[in-house]
Amino acid sequence: MRAVVITGVESVEVANVEDPGLRHPEDAILQVERMAICGSDLHPYRGEWGDPTGQRPGHEVIGTIVEVGAGVRTRKVGERVLMSGAIGCGACSLCGMGLVSRCSDFSVLGIPMLGTYPGGQAEYVTVPRADGTLWPIPEGVSAERALLLTDVLSTGWQGARRAGVTEGQSVAIVGFGPVGMCAAVSSRALGAWDVLVVDPLPSRRAFAEELGFAAFDPGVSEAIESVRERSSGGVDAAIEAAGRNASMETAIAATHARGTISVISAPSEALSDELPSRLATTQRMLMTTASPQRAWPQLFPRLGEPAFREIDRIFSHRLCLDDAADAYQLFSSRPDECRKVQLDP
Ligand SMILES: [Zn+2]
Ligand SMILES: [Zn+2]
């Protein structure tokens, strides 16, 4: 079968690799219908997590089950499913609560430091712990939405929930990449009266405004002051989705003293040693690695709400698996024109 293989720093190709097999009785094999490239796929692509040569990325996948192991109890061949970007043991109390990212056996497909299964940017993928990792795609949910639910929408939703966003609050979204976009939409769905976006890229601010959010450029000296003014002294919650020291500082500065900061980014640089001591005397900060399985039952019934109407627009590009090299290059180096890429096998 064909699969994306990283051949060096900032270099991927689509290669013929061995067909996937069942490694364990609880595995299932999916024929991939569509896949997405995630911001976290860019860390290995850019060589930020060691030499990536030979790695096979991809954890945002939907498809049809073509084979199940003898230990799979609930999933069946022929079901059209979405896969969770986060995989747990499926048996412990944390997995039972949907908190798979806290499971001691937590893994993510295609990220070698978090497991040994190759990723799903391929024609087929072996999925471990199929019962807890795969879920039938409900009737009426588009492929784009199902793909977003595998990770970024679930992450954005949990980031907003964990920030305690409720009716009438003001919320700042710091970093308007795909996860920040999903956090903004989720905050609105949870009843926030004002959602303010802070991002240095003009195209992202323009997109935020198109979606009805006020947008601010952190490079402008009075930006944070404007955010604080607009929210009468600081927002109730900030959702940090950029993973940089500067964005952490922005989140702290934008939020009032009783507010909450919810960090949902994967840090893309070493965070300052001063951060914990600063936070001891400022707002409370919560960090999240999402567990999509926990978000799905909350999100499925709400996807028809007006807040989610334009969520599919997060995908700015749709390419073929064979064009993966272009897709990676575009997503990595032209964030001003590329919001998120989906791939057809
Ligand atoms: Zn992802
Ligand atoms: Zn577990």
- Extract low-pLDDT stretches: none
What is the alpha-carbon Rg in Å? Answer: 20 Å
Number of helices: 12
* Number of self-contained structural domains: 2
CATH superfamily of the largest domain: Medium-chain alcohol dehydrogenases, catalytic domain
- CATH architecture type of the largest domain: Alpha-Beta Complex
State the end-to-end distance. Answer: 10 Å
Which structural class is indicated by helix and strand composition? alpha/beta
Overall shape: it is: globular
Strand tally, please?
15
Please give the structural blueprint.
Elements: E1 2-8, E2 11-16, E3 28-36, H1 42-45, E4 60-68, E5 80-83, H2 93-96, E6 124-127, H3 130-133, E7 134-136, H4 143-150, H5 152-162, E8 170-174, H6 178-189, E9 194-198, H7 202-210, E10 214-216, H8 223-230, E11 235-240, H9 245-254, E12 255-263, H10 274-279, E13 284-287, H11 292-299, E14 317-320, H12 324-333, E15 341-344
Parallel strand pairs: 8-9, 8-11, 9-10, 11-12, 12-13, 14-15
Antiparallel strand pairs: 1-2, 3-4, 3-6, 3-15, 4-5, 5-7
Helix pairs in contact: 4-5, 5-6, 5-11
One zinc ion is lined by residues 88-89, 91-92, 94-95, 103, 105.
